[in-house]
TrEMBL record:
Residues 20-142 form the RWD domain. SMART domains: RWD. PANTHER family: RWD DOMAIN CONTAINING PROTEIN 2, RWD DOMAIN-CONTAINING PROTEIN 2B-RELATED. InterPro entries: Phi-like, Prp3_C, RWD_dom, RWDD2A-B_C, UBQ-conjugating_enzyme/RWD. Pfam families: Prp3_C, RWD. This is RWD domain-containing protein. PROSITE patterns: RWD.
Length: 313
């Protein structure tokens, strides 16, 4: 067996372990809403790859738990499995809750990584169940320890102390093209996990806009930039300082209040179509920008300022 065939056989074994573990988790967390998969097509794709029906892996297995870990409040545990989990790569496990500050969520994620590195000694077999069980058993302690770390870094008490401001940021990202369905899913998932608003337009060219707290937009950029791109760059970075706790002011700055979604700007195309083969309808895109008070970006993206200057679609 040549090296490529050996690698493929090993990967199939890893993917089968992922599916077997998910089946086990589904039997354990079987109450309504406890365990969900956003796209069951990913399971079909993994099964087809394992059986040899396809040679392409177009997605990763990701799912989310919603567990009552806080009084009167469900907490999400998001799980994303790389193709070489469990033997060669660690899962991405993130805790999300409306009542947990974002900085603390990041510290919780770091603590989960440390637990895996220090406590999960046998990584040849799937271990998401072990990690989730540990989170459930130690959640109160985890919250306390990460909150204490935050307090320990606070400024010394002072009668003249003021609350630090936060920075709202909007990034306009331009890429030569965006073809991969896996990459498209990563963009959408990352933006939504970080609670960013905006849109992505796959195809050629690809345009992505994200807006929210600067810490989150920069984390989004750090996540997508290492993906394989022919060319990708930030065309424009808009920032504005907001007084900490000014949620209404932050909301007013957003141009895409409905959330983050993929926009195709092609009249006869859906999300399962080959976006890279479809031309962007420039007129639809211009109307979209104007609707969301973003007409100023036309010059940065295409070199013209007004829809009247745009080429016909």
């Amino acid at each position: 067996m040549d090296e490529q065939a050996t690698h493929k056989d090993r990967q199939k074994k890893e993917l089968q372990k992922q599916l077997d573990e998910f089946q086990m988790l589904s039997a354990i967390y079987c109450n309504p809403g406890e365990l969900r998969v956003d796209d069951y097509g990913c399971i079909d794709n993994l099964n087809s790859y394992i059986s040899g029906e396809t040679d392409r892996l177009t997605t990763k297995l990701d799912y989310r738990f919603e567990l009552p870990l806080l009084p009167d409040q469900r907490v999400q545990i998001l799980v994303e499995l790389p193709h070489r989990y469990p033997a060669l790569e660690m899962p991405r496990i993130v805790i999300r809750s409306a009542v947990i500050p974002r900085d603390q969520e990041r510290r919780l994620t770091d603590r989960i990584v440390r637990y895996i590195e220090e406590e999960v000694l046998e990584r040849d077999e799937a271990y998401v169940y072990q990690v989730v069980g540990w989170i459930q058993d130690n959640f109160a302690e985890l919250l306390a320890s990460t909150a204490e770390r935050k307090e320990s870094k606070a400024c010394p008490r002072s009668t003249g102390a003021t609350t630090s401001p936060i920075v709202f940021e909007r990034l306009w990202i331009y890429s030569h093209h965006l073809k991969s369905k896996m990459k498209r899913q990563t963009i959408i998932k990352t933006a939504r996990d970080l609670r960013l608003t905006g849109f992505s337009r796959p195809g050629k060219p690809a345009i992505i806009c994200v807006e929210g707290q600067q810490a989150d937009t920069q984390e989004f950029w750090r996540t997508i930039k290492p993906l394989k791109w022919q060319k990708i760059q930030i065309k424009l970075c808009e920032t504005e300082t907001v007084v900490a706790g000014g949620e209404n002011e932050m909301a007013a700055l957003r141009h895409f209040a409905a959330g983050f979604r993929e926009e195709l700007f092609c009249a006869d195309m859906d999300e399962d179509s080959d976006a890279e083969d479809q031309p962007m309808s420039m007129s639809l895109f211009m109307k979209f920008l104007d609707k969301h008070r973003c007409g100023y970006i036309k010059k940065e993206l295409f070199g013209f300022q007004n829809a009247i200057d745009a080429p016909a679609s």
